[in-house]
Each structure stands twice: as C-alpha cells, then as structure tokens.
C-alpha cells in the first residue's frame, strides 16, 4: 500500500507544516499576549478599567474568532499578498493563521488572568506599583503556568489550521493530502499525512503537559 509514497516529499511537507506552525505560533504569542493582557486590564473592575477600549478590542477579537478559518483563508488572500508577497506556500499561510489564532490565544490569556487571586493586583496597588509593574512583576509571573498551557492548546490548534490551509495551496501536509490523497485518490498518501499530523499533535501535547507539570512543582 505504501509503495507509491514519496517519503522525501512527505518529509518536506512535514518540515513545511512545522515551519508554518512555529512561525505562526511566534507571531500569535507576540500579538495575542499583549491583547489578552489589555482585555483583562481594561475589563470592568480592573486597574485600567475602560469600557470603550474593552468593548472595541473585544469586538475585533470576537469577529475574528467567529469567522471560520477556511473563509478567513480566502478573504485574506489579498492581504497575505500585501504582507508577505504571496498567498501560497508557507509564507502565504502565516498571516491568516496568525489572524485566526491570535484572538483565540488572547481570550485564553484573559481567562487565565481572571482566574488569578484578586489579592495579587490589590497588593501591588497598595504598594504603589504602576499598571506596567503590576503586569510584569506580578500578574504574568503568577500566570506563567496557565499561559504555557494556553500556548500548547494554541499550537495544537495551529497544526489543524495549517493542514486546512492546504485547500488553497498553503503547503505542508494539508496541501499534500489535498493534491495527492484527495485529487489523485492516493489513499496511502492521505493515510501517512493523517498519521504524521496525529503524532505531531500528540508530541506537542505530551511535551507541553510535562512542561506545565514541571512548572507547577516549582
């Protein structure tokens, strides 16, 4: 059954998927973390409470989260070309991946911060700490374990999204599954790509869980 599988091609597609996931996760963290902190700080009852800011940012986040990823892929083709010069391959897939995952991660960060003991912020406030000092010296260190767990969930989500990007020629294992497994009816290629994606997700989950457990013990 596996005689027709081009393992070199499978290897390249796997590397492309890892690159898409890695770079997208990096930009997702860079964008989603501050947005999540901003949502928390400007929400009702918090140190920087601002109804207009909170509702505006929350609206944008909710809109991006509500758009199905496949539709977002298509809608963002012109923007991807503008940002990275192409809407195809690894590069072309990164902008829609980030646009979809960053709002998701931001909400996870906001929820993690909400679960912290309110006394942490109050103690910082009583000592005269600024909002920036409270976030950097107290909130984020306290929320490290939760944010790491959210990062693992986001990384796994990005693996699935990166596979979906193959529908529009996004490269990686998803593109391989569509072009060979679906369009050319090569069930062996489809099976191999599915197995690799499953293994990839399991590795991310196991490594992430162990990292979170190690931080908890500290």
Classify the secondary structure makeup into a structural class. Answer: mainly alpha
Give the overall silhouette.
Answer: elongated
Question: Describe the biggest sheet?
Answer: none
- Unreliable stretches (pLDDT < 50, length at least 5) are none
Arithmetic mean pLDDT: 88
In terms of DSSP E residues, the strand content is under 5%
Secondary-structure element order, as H and E?
HHHHHHHHHH
The CA-CA distance between the termini, in Å, is 49 Å
Number of strands: 0
Helical fraction equals: over 70%
Radius of gyration (Å): 20 Å
Number of helical elements: 10
In brief, what are we looking at here?
By secondary structure, this protein is mainly α. It has helices spanning 7-42, 51-66, 69-75, 77-84, 89-114, 118-126, 131-142, 144-164, 172-182, 187-217.
Report what the structure shows.
This protein is 81% helix and 0% strand. With 218 residues, it is mostly helical. α1 (7-42) runs parallel beside α5, α8 (144-164) runs antiparallel to α10 and α9 packs antiparallel against α10 (187-217). The protein is elongated. It starts with 6 loop residues before the first helix and ends with a helix.
């Amino acid at each position: 059954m596996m005689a027709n599988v081009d393992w070199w091609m499978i290897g390249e597609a796997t590397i492309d998927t890892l690159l898409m996931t890695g770079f997208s996760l990096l930009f997702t963290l860079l964008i989603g973390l501050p947005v999540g902190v901003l949502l928390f700080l400007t929400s009702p009852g918090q140190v920087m409470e601002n109804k207009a800011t909170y509702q505006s940012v929350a609206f944008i986040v909710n809109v991006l989260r509500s758009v199905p990823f496949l539709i977002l892929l298509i809608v963002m083709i012109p923007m991807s070309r503008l940002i990275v010069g192409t809407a195809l391959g690894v590069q072309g897939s990164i902008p829609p991946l980030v646009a979809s995952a960053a709002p998701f991660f931001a909400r996870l960060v906001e929820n993690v911060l909400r679960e912290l003991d309110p006394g942490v912020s109050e103690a910082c406030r009583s000592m005269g700490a600024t909002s920036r000092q409270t976030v950097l010296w107290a909130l984020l260190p306290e929320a490290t374990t939760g944010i790491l767990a959210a990062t693992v969930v986001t990384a796994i989500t990005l693996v699935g999204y990166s596979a979906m990007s193959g529908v529009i020629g996004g490269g990686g294992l998803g593109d391989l599954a569509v072009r060979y497994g679906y369009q050319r009816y090569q069930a062996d290629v489809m099976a191999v790509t599915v197995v690799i994606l499953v293994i990839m997700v399991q590795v991310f989950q196991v490594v992430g869980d162990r990292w979170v457990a190690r931080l908890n013990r500290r």
